[in-house]
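User: quick one - fold this with zinc ion bound?
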Amino acid sequence: MNGHCGLNAAAKVGKVRQARERLYRIEGIVLKRQDFGEADRVLTLLTPDRGKLRAVAKGVRRTTSRKAGHIELFSQSHLLLAKGRTMDVITQAQAVNLFRALHDDLLRFTYASYMAELVDKFLEEEDAQEDVYLLLRGGLEALGETQGESSLALLTRFFELRLLSLVGFQPSLFACANCGQPLDAVDQYFSATAGGALCPACRTSQRDALPLTLNALKVLRFLQTRDYPQVRSLVLSADVHRELERLLLRYLTQVLERHLKSPEFLELVRGVNPVAG
Ligand SMILES: [Zn+2]
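Assistant: Sure. Structure tokens for the protein plus zinc ion:
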């Protein structure tokens, strides 16, 4: 081997090493997809160890793209990314779970979109929270196996409460959010601004206080403290379903201080599929 060849080989090794350093592997769930340029998409991904991140998938809107089928909405995939100047680029994708059952049913799809949107809104980029990742993955799996509006709604209420706890906004359900006294077994009130249930004596302390029935309070406590296998067998009346949905939506909106799009979409779908009495 002459000196010339040796130099070339060294340069080659250097290049390969450089390319390797620019590449990294992640596991992620696709939270959101936006069309970008002529044939690209920007994906918002949730990962267990890097939190939320955005990356571009080039050419995936072309019918010939091999990656496209592995990075559908909600897909859980193994991805190889290359560091880019403004945004990282997805160079390989291999789906682990496509959650097909969520795409075959409009109602499930809507609930899955809502879960993904909540997670997207609650997490900042690069804010790694593995338990939120596991919650979303479990939530999507459970949605795919759940049928019927009331079961889907119950699962979603469980998801909302668990997410709120994980991101540090667990509502107070055992003691009054205003005076701190333990709550008696009677109808109470709820204030999103106070951060939870209010005892009857404190109802006038918050302008946004709403009545909270004892039944709904019991269900909220159950959802907050039990695991899903215990929760899934609950059967609730349509009134309690409505009360819980309204209350949690108000609380979530207050916490996020932003307007959520998905609940409006849920209302729209509900017009077609009313909650069974
Ligand atoms: Zn009180």
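One thing worth noting: The chain has a mean pLDDT of 89.
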